Batch of 4 targets.
Target 1
Amino acid sequence: MTGTFQDQDDIRAAQEALARGHNPLVAGGVTRWEDEVGIGRIINRRIIELEPLPTPAQVLSDYQLDQASRKLVVSSREAIRDTLYGRDDRLLVIVGPCSIHDPKAALDYAQRLAGVQGELGKDLLIVMRVYFEKPRTTVGWKGLINDPDIDGSHHIQKGLLLARRILLDVLRAGLPAATEFLEPTSPQFISDAISWGAIGARNTESQVHRQLASGLSMPVGFKNATDGDVGVAVDSCFTSAQQHTFFGINHEGRASAVQTLGNPDCHLVLRGSSHGPNCDPESVRQAMERVRQEMPSNSAAAHGLIIDASHGNSGKDEVRQAQLVEQLAQRIGQGEPGITGLMMESFIEGGNQPAAPLDQLVYGRSITDRCISWPRTEQLLQNLAAAVRARRQLA
Ligand SMILES: O=C[C@H](O)[C@H](O)COP(=O)(O)O
Ligand SMILES: C=C(OP(=O)(O)O)C(=O)O
């Protein structure tokens, strides 16, 4: 399909035509309701527009990682692996906004966090959450790639390029980046800049996402399901470690049969559930027992897991999230086994605000889940670093 609906009236007319059983045919840039023979189309009856995007090859060459950033991606992926397999005794801390919506605030946050990484880098391996794709429970803003202007205009091409520019900025600030992979083809545009990937609670049982993880170049954490099921995420670690062949796109954007090697660096992320938290010592012990039944003893997953202090573990309340991080720091300091890393949702300002175009927003405040403020985040990172030092003493 090459044409587009011309405006909102056109779209409304098409919807009315559909309701009457007619067919909005789009050809040569003009919307028509029925084809020449009057029987209507049998495909794309509910597609308003297919707008071609630039190819991954084009986007990657327009916005290239410089040599220092490439080195950072390689070395941080390796360092993350070392923490996951227990070869590095630092705590992996994945911290940053629930979602990125403002390039300026993202860079501001990255620079603050890079300062802390410089100070605490012997104890913490800090990776910034740079999340561009938001999975929604029902509907809502789907993130900067999908709707960069936060106004429902859905300029995905603009969003993709902006996301990539932000990633380049974060890397230049000296921080590795973590993200959730949601759309199966979007990794081709950004994954070279990512050091840790997540598959979220809403997709953890999805074959499409497990296949995707099997071909990703970085370690990937699978969240437990929103209902609290940990077993599906363990199944994901197992499945993604295998080879797969599936539908995807290549760097020229062409539909391709993708064959993967399998990703041995997948692991569990406990994020709580609609029934409450699942990160108390007994839940961690049970989750690890479950992992060890399915995964080989030398896998990343069998060594330890990550606790997401946000989401179901704190009811998305930033005050409870911060309290939980303090409790986790205590437990880590006392040498509790199994906790390889933590995830925190944090931004410059605490809390959140409704999504709206940038000029209507408070600077540095989340437009998705509530986040811990920057000053509180700094304190918590200090606590976590002290806990790692205490754990080291015990060892
Ligand atoms: O991390 C972000 C949110 O928890 C996730 O996108 C779901 O949000 P929603 O329940 O508000 O849609
Ligand atoms: C959406 C997220 O988490 P979850 O999949 O656990 O809800 C997230 O970490 O942004």
Target 2
Amino acid sequence: MSMQDKATLRLLDKADKEIRKLPRNVKGALYDFQYKFRENPTNPTNGFKQLKGERLFSARVGEYRAILFHAGNQDYILVALRPRGQVYEHLERYRFDINQVTGALEIFDVVASEEATGTEPPAPEQVPAPQPEAEPVPAEAASGPDQTGPAPESPRPLLADYTEDQLRELGVADGLVSLALTITTESRLLGLVEYAPRHTEEVLLALADGRGFDEVMEEVTRPVAAPEPVDTTDYDTAFTRPATRVTTYDTDLQQVLEDDFAAWKVFLHPTQRRLVNRRYKGPARVSGGPGTGKTIVALHRVKHLVDRLGPGYTKPVLLTTFNKNLAADLRRRLLDLGGQQLLDRVDVVNIDQLASRIVSESGQGRQRRRTINDQQAAREWQDMLTELNERTWDADFLNAEWSQVILGQSVRTRGEYFRARRAGRGQRVSRAQRADIWQLVERFTMRLEERGVWTFRQVAEAAARVEGDRAAKIAANREREANAGGQMLHHQDQSFANLRFRYEHVVVDEAQDLNPAHWTLLRAMVDHTDNDIFLVGDTHQRIYGNQVSLGSLGINIVGRSARLTLSYRTTREILGSALGLLGEETWDDLDEGTDTLRGYRSVLRGPRPFFHGVDTWAAEIDALVARIGAIREQARAEGKFASVAVAVPVRDMVGEVERELVRVGISAASLGPEGPPSGHEESVHVGTLHRYKGLEYQHMIVAGVTDGLVPNANVDRYEDSDPARYRRELQMARSLLFVAATRARDSLVVSWHGEPSRFLPKQVAQAEKSTPAPEPAEEGFEDGGLFKPPNALL
Ligand SMILES: Nc1ncnc2c1ncn2[C@@H]1O[C@H](COP(=O)(O)OP(=O)(O)OP(=O)(O)O)[C@@H](O)[C@H]1O
């Protein structure tokens, strides 16, 4: 930790936020100070002196004082920077405790928390006894007094149903337990947690949101509790625990000062950290709601795996995802995380491109075939059936049967097709019907070949075969070597004997959208060893209908699955509304089980989402253009940039919105398959709902959420003819809306014209139609837009 004789100056999680708010001249002074301090902490010009106990020191930074915690040797942690007067006032304000539950070292300022809660009414003993039902206070009620005028005489504390011991048991910092129990309004609670240690913040907000003690224990505390009994006097051990969040590198402080600090690179949540560092005895899966840091975990995992491999010239780790633009984004972020050295050792490529590369490398002679997408394939099916005057089968059904069952399971012969599993396909087919389908499929693939085209799935399946053959040869080789007692074989074909798996580790982002052929390909590219496949994804965000059962594809994740639940992106308000869009559906876990978003939560806050209906599409465009104008105006006034995006259900609408924005002088660009056109990173982005997967914006407008568009009226034709498909299509359409809504960091508007989408909960759809969208800075967004579905946060 310490660097020879020089001192290290690290940063405590949350101190970065405070530092960023400091006046410019103080930041400048801190910039100079860090150099001097590292050279020699006790240099008299630093005014270095002991504050309290053996560990707390202060040092001079202009008119301010740096509060420093001595971690050992020459290692110091910058805890806070305060005006000189405040520092020496009451030294008891600084607590540096080892949390009794998590074992984390927590350094915080009790007085700052007290001050941030404002003047609080009477202490707990004057508070009325808990109500008979003893239900935890729901968030809605909790925030009531703030919003409905003057507080009643003896307001009931938000956490009146809990005792000091319970809060301690949940891991609330000891120094803040009694204060937390006196808080009566949500805004004061938000003040308290601003300065509280992270875990205390998470627990208190979850309780205030109405989650009960048991759920908070299960979802928030237990995952970060220290596995061994905690010695609250042992600082050295506390330092090594993942729950202790301090920066690792000396340069981090400098980056905060330069406004270039990316917290995701440094402060992993302990639950994230654990997943990154764990050794898995086979494939592992991480799920979690939008914004819980799955991609971040995947990136850190890649770094962890590469670090363990050491330097070299090959690319032994594959990082793949579904979309091209997301692969580009992963590459950029990986570079940011670990520099060129890391990137040089990782193959970052989207899965279809990887498949094409393998097929063309293998010299199958098919590389000149043009690749077509699923819709084009469905049209080809339709054309073929029309030409054959074949009316028994529907083009969509055959296309799905071919791609999901036949290509999906690498079915190569009629006999194999007779035996193939058709899980999730709905409609049953007899043996005679299978024979019929098989014949049509053969005819269809010949037709594509004659036309010089093939589908992405065919490419993936061909690539999976190439890699499958290689894996089989490796296995045969090993067996032969084992039989020969480990002696070198003088095999005729040396290249055969030297065969290796393409990668040592495979990491997959957006795993929910990969199809069976993709998984077969990935499985074949890496040996069955520890840490072979690490995948992250969320089936609630599946938008391409590729349902899989990993176990049946040779990827056994049983016992190696984990879930992230804390959103780092969306506010509590947006998260509550977005969950309401998911309805009562159930969701799979990429295997035979189900996944849920239980425990999904956020500690971020912001205005409530605004739900807004008007009569016509033209009026909807006018409203969104006006809102974007206001957002941009406000950002300009504050000298900041605000990222804004508009998502719409159909392509035509993209052009219409874009044109109108440009007409009124707002720079706008439509999102293509590779993201925004270059040079348009700061324009307003407009795109179909599909384009928003994996992205995020400060302000998100989801428009055209109208009956017949979301979901598309086309899906209704399956209601009677193919109920299984109907359910799948509806679920996918819901997911699409959910994905778009959860791209929002700070504000979300959902609008429609005419009849609202059936996915919008009733209370929202009935919102007053003509209420204009509030100004972005306005607090609340209650009128017409207030929506927190019952139990949405539970
Ligand atoms: N430990 C962390 N510290 C700070 N920021 C974080 C952390 N983890 C994630 N984030 C931030 O939260 C946001 C969402 O993270 P990420 O994209 O990894 O989530 P995700 O689970 O992959 O989301 P989605 O499923 O919606 O694609 C990003 O802005 C990321 O930088």
Target 3
Amino acid sequence: MTEPSTPPKEVLRPGLLAGTTGLVTGAGSGIGRAVSLRLAALGMAVHGTGRREEALAGTATLAEGLAGSFAYTPCNVRETDAVTALVEQVAANGLDLLVNNAGGQFFAPAAEISQKGWNTVVDLNLNAIFAVTRAAYPHLKARRGAVVSMSLSGVDRGGMGFAHSIAARAGVLGMTRSLALEWARDGIRLNCIGPGTVVTEGLAGEAAREILDRLVAATPMGEPTPVEEVAELVAYLASPAGRLMTGQLIQIDGAAHLGPGLHLIAS
Ligand SMILES: CCCCCCC/C=C/C(=O)SCCNC(=O)CCNC(=O)[C@H](O)C(C)(C)COP(=O)(O)OP(=O)(O)OC[C@H]1O[C@@H](n2cnc3c(N)ncnc32)[C@H](O)[C@@H]1OP(=O)(O)O
Ligand SMILES: NC(=O)C1=CN([C@@H]2O[C@H](COP(=O)(O)OP(=O)(O)OC[C@H]3O[C@@H](n4cnc5c(N)ncnc54)[C@H](OP(=O)(O)O)[C@@H]3O)[C@@H](O)[C@H]2O)C=CC1
């Protein structure tokens, strides 16, 4: 079954995030789009980024009429100077939330990953996250804000065919826990979310569909993670209810991290 068993529920109260500002990377599609729309629906002024302007414009169209707002600036997060300048621009009037969502990888056994392929995935999924988070630090400190970084279910146990991505995201988890300590007295909270299989355009195409079906079948609860449920969790972490949540990896995956996990792609 690749569809959720029940419609996703919105449980947070309207207006919860009114008066707050957030930056979401990878906001033009999939999880990043759903997160941006939910945050804006709860009243946040959201700024999104990603490389494709038309994808970001699509999110902006969907955000029309929501309680908050969605503005965007195209940017490649792997270009450190450009993305650092973007953080400065977006945060000029305050920043309450940073969502490090842009990411991705290709599936390949480690012996087939070139050095450039490794570096590309580590740049996208680790180095860019450090650059953006460091640039956001003074602004988050001023507002006692939060950082949520999108990770992977099972990141703490490894995954065949994902050595580059797991290494990068395990690095992000280590960074998250270290900064949760360093920045605790600044009131900044940092957490990682580990979604299970999420049906997004990143998993589109016939070959991906076959992998998707096998991943879902191997998920103990037998269903994928809806983007809306990831978005609700991000909003919770951004809200006062998440006040003491920091340094966590929260896996929203139907127990996928306890099942066969990513390994089965390699079999
Ligand atoms: C039970 C648990 C369930 C959890 C499920 C988790 C599943 C996760 C799903 C997702 O994350 S989907 C959402 C994200 N979307 C994607 O992952 C797709 C996006 N991927 C990419 O854009 C690329 O893979 C990229 C490498 C991250 C970036 O591509 P870019 O265009 O910037 O680089 P390239 O110039 O194309 O390549 C750079 C380098 O990498 C080598 N390479 C690329 N693909 C492969 C491959 N399939 N196999 C081996 N090597 C590859 C490429 O050859 C280049 O290196 P050189 O050849 O020049 O040495
Ligand atoms: N789908 C899944 O099953 C799972 C996904 N994840 C993770 O969740 C996150 C979102 O994935 P998902 O929504 O599924 O996938 P998508 O491919 O739909 O989203 C990835 C987003 O990242 C953006 N992005 C990629 N590279 C860059 C870059 N260099 N600079 C700026 N933006 C970039 C893309 O925008 P653009 O192309 O316009 O740059 C895109 O909007 C990723 O980190 C993914 O690995 C984690 C677990 C499971």
Target 4
Amino acid sequence: MNGIPFVKMHGLGNDFVVFDGRRDPAVLDLDDATAARIADRKTGVGCDQLIVIEPARDDMADAFMRIRNNDGGEVEACGNATRCVASIVMGELGRNDAIIETVVGLLDANASTNGLVTVDMGQVKLDWRDIPLAEAVDTNHIPLSLGPLSDAVGVNVGNPHAVFFVEDAEAIDIEKLGPVLEHHEMFPERANIEVCSIVGENQIRMRVWERGVGVTRACGTGACAVGVAAARRGLTGRKTEIILDGGKLTIEWLPDDHVLMTGPVATSFQGFLHSSLLGQH
Ligand SMILES: N[C@@H](CCC[C@H](N)C(=O)O)C(=O)O
């Protein structure tokens, strides 16, 4: 077959087209428009995020990972894709651990015997300057309301999140409210929006509107933000089970502010990208 090989993977239905830029340099300098063309679900391969594995820059890292949203824009972090890339790299190395480098730092990953992968997503940031927010506000109580949503918690997991707690997350029209909040002037770099409710002891139901994508079945960094936000508000302990549309993630906010995310990884298929999607004819 001609064309650039890719693998289609997902974490809880948050799906990715993964290219290997170490082998195929043509994918190393994709622009936003090309990435969006590949991510398009009708005319491209289709995915929430497009991932390129690149050679590590840092001596400590095993590989570098570049992340683009469905709209083609490059972003700093993606929890579910980090588990997927870590599983590829661990397979290559024949090890149960790997260090994945991103634009915001080095992430330690480990495979457990039950087939799940744990990633240390790094230290969360809770200061308004790091979220980033337009106003100098208390990030535990962002003064922002829209319909039934108000009083968000801001958490930066490498990327910005606004977490809203409600009585019943299922009752919220996230398709309608998500895009307005994503683009709200409070968030100069836009934001991922999570709506959640406490459904048991240390158990949270979460729905997400992802920046640059829309509603997805799961968001790993979003789950980290929700776990941290719930503990910060005193609604749960520091270890939580987050129930997303696509399944469950376990999140643990450590005393040093690092956040551990544990969940599954799956491969759907392998394919070859037609050159027309790269703009070559
Ligand atoms: N699905 C991801 C997050 C991807 C990036 C996000 N949409 C953003 O713009 O920050 C995850 O699993 O964390």
